[in-house]
Amino acid sequence: MKPFLLQPKMLSLFNVFYPTGYIFAMFPTLEHAVEAERALVACGLSEQDILFVEPGAILSEIAATIDDEKDSLPSVGTESEYIRLYRDLARQGHCALMIPAASGGETELAMTQLRRFPLSDARRYHLLAIEALT
């Protein structure tokens, strides 16, 4: 499991966190995330492709991609609303895994494993849509 590092390809045209082709799955504890990562590797995913996102990175890097002053009225279904959710969970100590899932088959394979663990939230980022998986 590699540590998360925000990259330009993980941002939308408006520089908001939008990791197209990934599942962003949040867990209440580090232990749950580590166990989930082991299950993903056991079913064939590469450990090097799975990113671990600690609460501090969610707060300092991901949450920093939205402007709460400019975006003060939340709009359900937008990237900003989901980032606020991630921020709120990270403040409670939740962490995340980012799992590559370019296809529906890859998503189903990953989610079969992830559903075995307590998930705080899980979403797959498509090119033009964000799919709720929990």
Roughly what percent helix?
A: 25-40%
Number of domains: 1
Shape: globular
What is the averaged pLDDT score?
A: 93
The class by helix and strand makeup works out as alpha+beta
Largest sheet, in brief, is:
6 strands, mixed
Say what the CATH topology is.
Answer: Alpha-Beta Plaits
What's the order of the H and E elements? EEHEHHEHEE
- Report the C-alpha radius of gyration, rounded: 14 Å
Please, how many helices? Answer: 4
- Taking the alpha carbons of the first and last residues, their distance comes to 22 Å
Oligomer: single chain
The level 1 CATH classification is Alpha Beta
β-strand number: 6
Named at the architecture level, the CATH assignment is: 2-Layer Sandwich
What spatial order of strands do you see in the largest sheet?
1-3-4-2-5-6
Residue windows where pLDDT falls under 50 for at least 5 positions: 73-77
Approximately what portion of the residues adopt beta-strand conformation?
A: 15-25%
Protein name: RNA-binding protein
Structure in words:
This protein is α+β, with helices and mostly antiparallel strands. The protein has one domain: Alpha-Beta Plaits. It has helices at residues 30-42, 55-62, 79-91, 104-114, and strands spanning 2-3, 22-27, 51-53, 95-100, 121-125, 130-132. It has a six-stranded mixed β-sheet. Helix 1 packs across helix 4 (104-114). It is globular. 32% of the residues are buried. It comes from Chitinimonas arctica.
